[in-house]
Amino acid sequence: MSRVIAIANQKGGVGKTTTSINLGASLAAAEMKTLLIDCDPQANASSGLGLRKDPRRQSLYHLFLGEASIEDLIQATELDGLDLVPSDRNLVGAAVELFSLDRREFRLKDAIQPILARYDFVLLDCPPSLDILTVNALTAAASLLIPIQCEYFALEGVSEMLDTLIRIRRNLNPELEVEGFVLTMYDERTKLSRQVVQDLRDYFGSQVFKTVIPRN
């Protein structure tokens, strides 16, 4: 059975998609069969893995509406061992169209069950907002990986994300854990970056990964 990890932070521009792509590629390189599901209507993970825009191609949007199965959507990437379920801009409308459907928060969790045995890891790249797409990802995931930009408002974004985590645990997914915090866009030349890293390590301890991703 695969490990399902959501990469999420309600703050935009913190490196969620970059983290998702590079983590997926690294796991595949380590011979771990990996599936990356692009849950963001911006579809940057899809384009970042080489998928060109194609209005005829089905995407996660069609899965949410019950018009396609997960097997229909899986695309091979140029990296051996890394597959992709693409997104597209139609996913913006999912929040409205899912409103009247049964188990709307569990659509992704229910859909991926048939393919979990095929993969060691399933990564869910989330949009920078708490909408039905992020809720579906957090409901489907076993754990939450939170990228944090080493800048001024980082702690504020983390606080909002942890509030969301508590609500998801209470109402939808009581087993959701924090996989860890990954520090991104670190600039060792600035006192602010160093202070953010120190504050997060002081507060969250071993939950902050040792690896720090520099701005370059």
How is the secondary structure organized here?
Blueprint: E1 3-7, H1 16-29, E2 34-38, H2 44-48, H3 60-64, H4 70-73, E3 75-76, E4 82-85, H5 94-97, H6 107-112, E5 121-125, H7 132-140, E6 143-149, H8 154-171, E7 177-186, H9 191-204, E8 208-214
Parallel strand pairs: 1-5, 1-6, 2-4, 2-5, 6-7, 7-8
Antiparallel strand pairs: 3-4
Sum up the structure in keywords.
8 strands; 8-stranded mixed β-sheet; 216 residues; globular
How would you describe this protein?
It is a single chain. 37% of the residues lie in helices and 21% in strands. It is of the alpha/beta class and 216 residues long. The protein has an 8-stranded mixed β-sheet with strand order 3-4-2-5-1-6-7-8, with helices on both faces. It is globular, with a radius of gyration of 17 Å.
How is this structure best summarized?
With 216 residues, the chain is of the alpha/beta class. Helices cover 37% and strands 21% of the residues.
The biggest beta sheet, please? Answer: 8 strands, mixed
Query: How are the strands ordered across the major sheet?
Result: 3-4-2-5-1-6-7-8
Helix content: 25-40%
What value does the average pLDDT take?
Answer: 92
Q: What's the helix-strand series? A: EHEHHHEEHHEHEHEHE
Globally, the shape reads: globular
Number of strands: 8
Q: CA-to-CA gap between the ends? A: 36 Å
Class derived from helix and strand content? alpha/beta
**Portion in strands:** 15-25%
Q: Would you identify the regions where 5 or more consecutive residues have pLDDT less than 50?
A: none
Number of helices: 9
C-alpha Rg (nearest Å)? 17 Å
